[in-house]
Amino acid sequence: MGIVNVTPDSFSDGGLWLDPDKAVAHGIELTRQGADLVDVGGESTRPGAQRVTEEEELRRVIPVITGLTAAGVVVSVDTMRAAVAEASVAAGAKVINDVSGGRADADMVKVAAGTGVPFVVMHWRGQSTEMESLARYEDVVREVVAEVEAQAEAVVAAGVKPEQLIVDPGLGFAKTREDDWALLARLDAWNRLGHPLLVAASRKRFLGTLLADERTGELRPARERDAATAAVSALAAATGAWAVRVHEVGATADAVRVEAALRAAREER
Ligand code: PMM
Question: Which pLDDT band holds residue 102 (cuts at 50, 70, 90)?
Answer without folding.
Answer: very high
